[in-house]
Design brief:
Helices cover 31% and strands 26% of the residues. It is α/β, with parallel strands linked by helices and 242 residues long. It has one domain: Rossmann fold (3-Layer(aba) Sandwich). The strands form two sheets. It has an eight-stranded mixed beta sheet with strand order 5-4-3-6-7-9-8-10. Strand 8 and strand 9 form a beta hairpin. The chain is globular, with a radius of gyration of 17 Å. The two termini are 21 Å apart.
Length: 242
């Protein structure tokens, strides 16, 4: 079973009350998301608060809001933020994206999200974990996330999302419907020559969807457990040991 906490170099994530624990996916998204000219950042579905804390560590002035629909997880994320060196720059809100949109927040320079994406697998018996992992009528949809970003991003703002490749194709379509276009894609593989397992994609208001910058990252160096040099470099400021 996962530990009830995960210790990073500059902060600690307590996760006993959160359905979704610290994962490699979330760490990759938090480290790889482009935060150039970040002023106000929104983390949608923050869970433990990990992405918000990673953004705060990476960018010394960005103001961060983080949404979490599960009240127990939101409370734990708030405690994690309060115990961090950046408590004055992070605000956790226990709310759905729809309820938050109804409050008409000020525009954001950046929005980050690792949305639910298991469309065909069986839902978890744990209701909170199922909400966090599975797309359903009651969870965050791709269209809802894209629509919110289109409405509440600054004209120069960016939305960064992590999804498996098949689901990212669905998200790209949803984004284009609301005028957001793929600008950058980081393709993640577990090992050299392996199939792509995740895409970390950045969407902007400008573009046509026909051209984008593409990079690749391999987590492991070879068939063994050792991390690749690129993975080590990306997470070097966060993990205690690589």
């Amino acid at each position: 079973m996962p530990n009830d906490y995960f210790q990073f170099q500059q902060f600690r994530i307590e996760q006993g009350s959160c359905a979704m624990k610290v994962s490699t996916d979330a760490c990759l998204l938090g480290a790889a998301a482009t935060l150039t000219d970040a002023t106000r950042l929104l983390d949608v579905g923050t869970g433990t608060g990990l992405l918000a804390l990673m953004a705060a560590q990476r960018h010394p002035t960005v103001q961060i809001e983080a949404l979490e629909i599960d009240e127990a997880a939101a409370a734990q994320a708030a405690r994690n933020a309060a115990a961090s060196p950046w408590a004055d720059r992070i605000r956790i809100r226990a709310a759905s994206l729809a309820d938050f949109a109804a409050s008409t927040p000020a525009p954001y320079s950046h929005i980050v999200c690792n949305p639910p994406f298991f469309r065909q697998s069986l839902p978890s018996a744990n209701a909170a974990r199922s909400t966090a992992r599975h797309v359903s009528a009651s969870s965050l949809s791709f269209g809802e996330l894209a629509g919110f970003a289109s409405r509440f991003l600054l004209p120069t703002g960016a939305l960064t999302v992590l999804l498996p490749p098949p689901e990212m194709l669905h998200f790209e379509t949803a984004a284009q419907h609301v005028g957001l276009y793929l600008a950058e894609r980081l393709t993640v593989r577990h090992r050299p020559g392996g199939r792509p397992t995740r895409h970390i994609s950045r969407f902007l208001h400008t573009g046509s969807g026909s051209g984008f910058e593409e990079q690749e990252l391999t987590i492991h160096a070879d068939a063994g457990p050792a991390y690749s040099d690129a993975f080590r470099a990306l997470l070097s400021g966060f993990y205690l040991a690589l």
